[in-house]
Amino acid sequence: MTVTIKDIARALDISPATVSRALKNDSRITVDVRERVTSMARKLGYRPNLLARGLVSSRTHAIGYIVDNLSWSFFSELAERVQITAEEFAYSTYIYSSLKSPQKEREGIDGFLSRGVDGLLVSATESPENMRVYRQLSQANFPIVLFNDLPGVEVDSVVTDNYEGANRAMRHLYEHGHRKIMFIGPKENTTFKTQRLAGYRDFLGRNGLPIREDLVHCEEDDPMYGYRVVKAVMGAPKKPTAVFVHNDTLAMGVYRAVHEMGLRIPDDLSVVGYDNLDSCQFMYPPLTTIEFPIRHLARAGVELLMKRMSEKKVKSSEQEIPRIHQKISLTPRLIIRQSTGPLRITDNLNLGAGKGE
């Protein structure tokens, strides 16, 4: 059961108005009463209704952006673009990293609402327990835009077609003659990972190639996981000739392992990453990758949020007309650099008819 201000007032035999003022640190309430109220609130497990407080607050010309993990270059670049774009609309941006924690994600939402932000952008952890929070915000017509493609969640979103991005990466390698193509991805089953992995598998199936589970590696979330996989796989007899990596950060680990083993990219292993981080062009050789359109993503997300914030609630009699949620899908593109090349003749001889391993 939800604990209310009335419950605290009843327990202390004081008025709800006094409890409310005490929780707001009102100077009219004595220190002793404030301490008794806060102590009883903690004892009863009181949690303020920050959503309601946020909904009735005046405009602050500030938005909140909850990011998955700022330690990853992709999210750092996206957060920067969100801030730059919001400033074009004369809005400030609060940025909070959930550190991939569903609990911290909820705390971030509560914190932003308590500060009265006018809207929220979220790169969600995609935890099932937070789906209710997004639905609650959306149903209350609080402006919120997700950078996630979450099936069954009626919330405005701006996403990229990860499945098509994977398809383009695989087609590029296939057209270069590669048939033994490895996939390296994270353990966490976000929609980004599941859609890219599905694109990888489906491409193999459509082209009559076996899906070798020994070439699919998704066991860890460590940025150096790509390094460990290549170290283990490239010494095996049935080693791959190419690898499609879930993101550019993991691809950096692949590069290091290849170098330490005395091999060369793309002569011994063609590599395709995903995201097109700024660092890709400085890797040696420069990394072929699928461009996750960060600038377009940030702009589309901020513009959609601004649109929602500027819309006035349209009412018919006493009932509010339901909002039609919008999903904007951006198409990624292949950025070809020097980390991919044609299959060498010696490797082609080992492929047999081209449909086997």
Number of extended strands: 14
- Total helix count? 13
CATH architecture of the largest domain: 3-Layer(aba) Sandwich
- Helix and strand pattern: HHHHEHEHEHEEHEHEHEHEEHEEEEH
Q: Largest sheet, order of strands side by side?
A: 2-1-3-4-5-13
* Helix percent band: 40-55%
Whole-number mean pLDDT = 89
CATH fold-type name of the largest domain:
Rossmann fold
The gyration radius over C-alpha positions equals 25 Å
Structural class: alpha/beta
Global shape: elongated
End-to-end CA span: 59 Å
CATH class division of the largest domain: Alpha Beta
* Unreliable runs: 312-318, 352-357
Give the amount of beta strand, in percent.
15-25%
**Count of folded domains:** 3
Largest sheet: 6 strands, parallel
Q: CATH H-level name of the largest domain... which superfamily?
A: Response regulator
